[in-house]
Design a protein that fits this description.
Elements (H helix, E strand, L loop, with lengths): L6 E14 L2 E15 L6 E18 L2 E21 L2 E13 L2 H4 L3 E13 L3
Amino acid sequence: YNFSANVGLVGEVGWARDSEDDVTFNAWNLGIGPRFTARPDGPVWPFAQVLVGGVHARASFDDDSASATRFMIQPGAGVYVNAGDGWGLVGQADYRRVFLDEDEDGDTGENDLRLFIGLRLLLD
């Protein structure tokens, strides 16, 4: 949602899956936060955003499973290239910090890098 031409509210839902031996890992992330966009006269619009939310991870093995939900913060930046009436191309890089419980998880945090290239539809 855009409050103005330069400030908006964005959200993200993501899922990742991995299997190793007899263990299946699933991770869901959910975040929301502000996006600041520079919209010059041309078709290239750089932006920066900060999402806060959570990551829910679940490991399944045999007839058992374990799961945990942790807080995350995800700053990022990218560029949107307006390619036509209401659509364009986007490239983005984000750093995600997941805050872990050292007593339960064995570490204080996890650092992830997310790279994204895709199409974006403008709904406003």
